[in-house]
């Protein structure tokens, strides 16, 4: 078992990484202020993993309420969140009831937010079951729901008491979802960890084969890297923005194609290639660096060519996402391979990157 | 001007108390991270006080968005909260936009919660315009909305950057609302401040005449008392429960009569008399003490006799509100005049208090 320790908000907690963690409830039991939990999950994950967890908890005298939500980003709304509150209040759950999120980032974000605001805050445990949730959304304490006028617009910073990253749950993850998680993993290498990037280059094939040791290493390293960046900037005032590498372009791709056409990780992958192209345009990374980045992303089963939305449309979409000051947009760029920084791009450089990085119209 | 300093959540802030504060925006301006605010108010308060505040801010170059909600506790819901988010997102308000609550406790609680969760937290300023909000709801950082299955069930602990208690706004407060605020003020005397209780006895007539000096003293003292109790127990684990003096009975009255029939402060007033009767029953306060309490509450324009719901119904309602352990219910009781504690009552003592304190059926 691997262990990453987080200390945010003066509330340190552990991320445990291993196979078969789901039934090892000895990690959960000492954290419960009351032998009562509500497991929040969705219709896809419940049949796969809810019974094992529920039985293991009940065998230890824990009263378990299961709240099964519909599956999908489009349900990451107040209405669905309210199903959690309806369930908790209907069962008279008190402030000592612990909420357990069992699912991907959507379930984690919603359950975390529910825990943050139910009776002004109840304890919360994360059991992320997608690769993306294990390496990204379950780390750092951001929780949220969407609003019709914007993604993740309503939420809290709220830390869990424990994260159990059970690698066995990844066995059932569809290949596209698996690759989407790899995009965020590659991102950590590019932000500030060349050694990890090189490890990924050497191990991408075993990773794609979902080898346990390789996965454990990748998840542990990713959590450590994200934890380090987040701990230095918990409320997102500065350096945490590095985690948005590939995301400004990526969000434009997601919005431009219509949400759901590409997975978030896929859009981020293509977005990182665009960020690399722009950095090369600025003379900061070499053609070889660019090739290495593109090759790794391709081997991870991710797109390296962005959709042909047209430069105008990209610029419009990015201007909606970010502030544009005097014709410049903030981007995360690469100073060299394995080192990113918060910078700005002028419109001509963005256009050049798009010309090089988008499919022919 | 009077000043009470609060230091909660490592984010110290001031409560300023005086007439005509509304237009003294020099207190607000230095706190704005961006010259942009959204004032949240309601249809009753907006025509009375919004223009003055808005004009004063705009005269100082602050961009003001007004969000006017319907008036009433029944609108303290997610749907109304969402009107705030719709407004903010429609105007593309960012994380540096400050929310200003201009109104009573309902507006303060909702705006505070909106500020806590909009983009995971934006700055927040309270301008309470009811006596209850000035002495109670604006102090301590509790924010919330109601859920169909319970009051204040969804919320956050979130501190404002500043509270401006403008005593002039109380000029237009209806008499029943004014008296409701006095109930909470009397409560502070009974919790742990005999000197303040005696000051209230001596000054209740000038207070009822809304004399500025008397009001300033009462608001200042109440804020200090609440601040002291809250600072010792910010997240409500122990002593903060003293603030519920009169509230267990009071909630039963509110629920038993149907919410809205009695104002919260009226129910708390009658509830404090019941708590005094129970304490006398236990031999802890004298008949004279009881008379002094009842006389002050009556002079404040508040009910001293509780409605005849029947003891069974009271017990049922209180059991729904509180946990009942082995036939005992937690109550805030009086050890002596001006000193309360967290105790328990047996059913016979509750019945005796109800017999003495309720109207004839
Ligand atoms: N809080 C943060 O810091 C943060 C960071 C990144 C992303 N996010 C959020 O995370 C969400 C995306 O998370 P995601 O990629 O996990 O998506 P997701 O939660 O929608 O999961 C993807 C799909 O996989 C299914 N699934 C989950 N676990 C499975 C398993 N073990 N086997 C088979 N199927 C499984 C889900 O039901 C879903 O259909 C977005 O809403 C995003 O905003 C949050
Ligand atoms: N957060 C806390 O710690 C806390 C504590 C106590 C109460 N509360 C909450 O506060 C709410 C009650 O607050 P309230 O008593 O202020 O009720 P309220 O906000 O409903 O105000 C009472 C009425 O007075 C009107 N009003 C407000 N200011 C006025 C003015 N200056 N002139 C004329 N009319 C005015 C309002 O529009 C409303 O109709 C409840 O929702 C309660 O849950 C919160
Ligand atoms: Zn991402
Ligand atoms: Zn009250």
Structural topology:
The structure is a homodimer of 361-residue chains.
Chain A: E1 2-6, E2 13-18, E3 36-42, H1 45-58, E4 63-69, H2 78-90, E5 98-103, H3 105-117, E6 124-128, H4 131-137, E7 142-147, E8 150-157, E9 162-166, H5 175-192, H6 194-208, H7 212-231, H8 247-257, H9 264-281, H10 287-299, H11 311-321, E10 324-325, E11 328-336, E12 339-346, H12 347-357
Parallel strand pairs in A: 2-9, 3-4, 3-5, 5-6, 6-9
Antiparallel strand pairs in A: 1-2, 7-8, 10-11, 11-12
Helix pairs in contact in A: 4-5, 4-7, 5-6, 5-7, 5-9, 6-7, 8-9, 8-11, 9-10, 9-12
One nicotinamide-adenine-dinucleotide binds at residues 42, 44-45, 48, 71, 73, 76, 103-107, 109, 129-130, 132-133, 136-137, 140, 142, 152, 169, 172-173, 177, 180, 264 of chain B.
């Amino acid at each position: 078992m691997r262990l990453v320790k987080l200390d945010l908000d003066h509330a340190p907690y552990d991320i445990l990484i291993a196979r078969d963690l789901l039934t090892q409830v000895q990690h959960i039991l000492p954290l419960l202020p009351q032998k009562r939990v509500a497991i929040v999950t969705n219709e896809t994950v419940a049949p796969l993993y809810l019974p094992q967890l529920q039985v293991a908890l009940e065998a230890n005298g824990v009263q378990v309420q299961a709240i099964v939500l519909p599956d999908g980003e489009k349900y990451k709304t107040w209405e669905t969140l309210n199903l959690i509150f309806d369930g908790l209040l209907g069962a008279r759950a008190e402030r000592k009831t612990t909420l357990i999120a069992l699912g991907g980032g959507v379930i984690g974000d919603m359950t975390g937010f529910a825990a943050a605001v139910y009776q002004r805050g109840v304890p919360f445990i994360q059991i992320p079951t997608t690769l993306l949730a294990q390496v990204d959304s379950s780390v750092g304490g951001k929780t949220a729901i969407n609003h019709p006028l914007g993604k993740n617009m309503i939420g809290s910073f709220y830390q869990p008491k424990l994260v159990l990253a059970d690698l066995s749950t990844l066995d059932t993850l569809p290949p596209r979802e698996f690759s989407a998680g790899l995009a965020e993993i590659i991102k950590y290498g590019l932000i500030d960890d060349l050694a990890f990037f090189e490890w990924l280059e050497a191990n991408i094939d075993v990773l794609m084969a979902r080898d346990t040791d390789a996965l454990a290493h990748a998840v542990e390293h990713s959590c450590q890297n994200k934890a380090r960046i987040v701990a230095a900037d918990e409320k997102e005032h500065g350096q945490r923005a590095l985690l948005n590498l590939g995301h400004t372009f990526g969000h434009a791709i997601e919005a431009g194609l219509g949400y759901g056409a590409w997975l978030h990780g896929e859009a981020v992958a293509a977005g990182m290639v665009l960020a690399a192209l722009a950095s090369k345009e600025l003379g900061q990374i070499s053609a070889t660096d660019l090739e290495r980045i593109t090759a790794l992303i391709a081997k991870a089963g991710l797109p390296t060519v962005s959709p042909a939305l047209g430069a105008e449309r990209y610029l419009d979409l990015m201007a909606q996402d970010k502030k544009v000051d005097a014709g410049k947009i903030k981007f995360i760029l690469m100073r060299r391979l394995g080192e990113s920084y918060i910078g700005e791009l002028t419109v001509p450089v963005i256009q050049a990157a798009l010309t090089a990085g988008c499919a022919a119209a």
